[in-house]
Design a protein that fits this description.
366 residues, alpha/beta, Rossmann fold, DNA polymerase, domain 1, Ubiquitin-like (UB roll), 3 domains, six-stranded mixed sheet, three-stranded mixed sheet, 15 helices, binds guanosine-5'-diphosphate, binds magnesium ion
Length: 366
Amino acid sequence: MGLKIGIIGLPNVGKSTVFNALSGAQNAEVANYPFCTIQPNRAIVPLHDPRLEKLHALVGVPKIIYATIEFVDIAGLVKGASQGEGLGNQFLGNIRDVDALVHVVRCFEDPNVVHVSADIKPDEDIDTINLELVIADLEQVERKIERLTSEVKGDKKLLPVMAMAQNLKTHLEAGNSASSFTERSSASYKSLAHELRFLTAKPVIYAANVDEDGLAEDGPLTKNVIEIAKKHNADFLKVCAKLESEMVDMSKEEREEFLALAGVEESGLNQVVSKGFAILDLISFFTKNENEVRAWNIAQGTTAPQAAGEIHTDFERGFIRAEVVSFETFAEHGNDSALKTAGQMRSEGKEYVVQDGDVILFRFNV
Ligand SMILES: Nc1nc2c(ncn2[C@@H]2O[C@H](COP(=O)(O)OP(=O)(O)O)[C@@H](O)[C@H]2O)c(=O)[nH]1
Ligand SMILES: [Mg+2]
């Protein structure tokens, strides 16, 4: 599954610094002026999973291939972006392509780094960005209503969609996001959302970018972000982008020591990746052969043939059955022959819904 998470926020809040640390490479230029990152920058980030590492050790094959998430550093969101300010429209298009958003909010004080407004007020900064997203969605809905106005004349079945679009328009006009629209479960809304891919319907994680002191203890700016995340029913995490970027070239041990010194247990970046994965409602399954063990991301509820299709479309078409064992059971027995002797390897058919942590061997015809 091509999972994409967009990093958004006002200029100079630390998006590219977070992105660089994530990609581990300094390929998104970090600079102290707005609009530095004009092209969207993309990084493929592995999703570390201790289960896969254990599997790798047990199976003893050369390669370990993690499931990945793609991060996109999206620049240029400023007040007026939806009206084309600061190359705004182009950036809004980039956001439409992603599955979830990490909204970086500046909570560090540094007189050397220019902020877009005189003071750092997280709630106002967040509102500025969110309002641009709402306006962009509103424009989509308005254009859709225009199209529907002529289409309903020939097709009365479109009337409920039209009514829904009108309701949604009213909802957005009041400054609300699509994710708080109460009719989200209706078929008409779903067809609109599927077509228009609302920016404000995407799951959001608010990431407070704090200074070193802010990591150990929440300051007033961070508390402000936490409050807003609660209000929006969104996830929250804290990251010190500057610190993370200093850790890029360190070994695992050095990093742990460094984090301990800063008074934190888990790196903010790890949380960006793991919360990003969690928010997308995904699970992982594992495959293995003589060369590699590998993890794959799938949505909850994916059937065995669909999961096989993640690996190769031919696998889905020619699917016969899947030999399945849970990670825990595999780890308990240690290898395939022990599993078989114990009668623990299950043979599953087309209807089987893959579970998180399944170790699977697909049988198929080509
Ligand atoms: N003091 C401090 N400066 C930071 C932090 N994160 C980013 N910066 C600086 O803020 C400036 C803008 O960062 P950048 O990542 O380019 O912001 P972007 O415009 O949101 O992509 C750069 O000079 C960074 O070094 C931080 O956590 N603390
Ligand atoms: Mg940037």
